[in-house]
Amino acid sequence: MNEPSPSPSGAAARPAIPSRAAEPNTGLITVEGIDWLVLDIEGTTCPVSFVAATLFPYASEHLESFLKDSAEQPEVQTLLQEVADAWEADPDPTVSLLRDQHQSGAGPLATLPYLQWLIREDRKLAPLKELQGLVWERGYARGELLAPLYPDVPEALHRWKASGLGLAVYSSGSVAAQQMLYAHTPAGDLRTLFSHWFDTRTGAKKEPVSYTAIARELGSEVGRILFISDALAELKAADAAGMQVLFSDREGNPERDPGPYRVIHSYAQLNTKP
Q: Could you state, in order of their start, the residue ranges of all structural domains in the chain?
């Protein structure tokens, strides 16, 4: 097992997390001493396929018509300017070629080639995520989108909330997109179960400082926060910041290696203690 990452200055010391999947003979995973649960979305509470096979294609297909309809909105204009600035500064050779091919573009669709490229490459540019969120908002409102949470998730969220745990989301999707997803589920609107929402404007998910910032915002000792994600690099960053972590291993997830961390397959397994 890997040596635990040292806690940063001020972080509460905690025991190393063993790599076993669950406690012997129980199927339960016990996590002690937490006040907060911070949850990723893709591969953690919602299938990756919903984002990759439904949300991204929907945004790509409807982005052009959305920009034509909404270009006069100040919020959209601000986001498009941020995209234009990012396009100009992007050093990727493919982006440079794209910029040369479309340098004469103007109007609300001027940055559309770059936006479509970002979607294809799954780049985590914050203004793109917010524009996607606005496109998805229309899709949810029209009844064209519904978030298929894993079956155990709604019950677990209610159980954790009732037990006194605080719940927060940290996802690469914009806060608006996160809230829309949880507002449109087969179990109804679950947004009120969460008290905090974090996206990449808080910081990159693979950087320990982002998790320190989240702890500060939550007003909690970092060691009293449990972060669950399907991405090993994110767990390593949260661990380095001092958080407790669990690796979400769900059917269909592209990443299945938990590294040194405990694995959870269903939230019915999770047993929390003060």
A: 29-46+147-273, 50-141
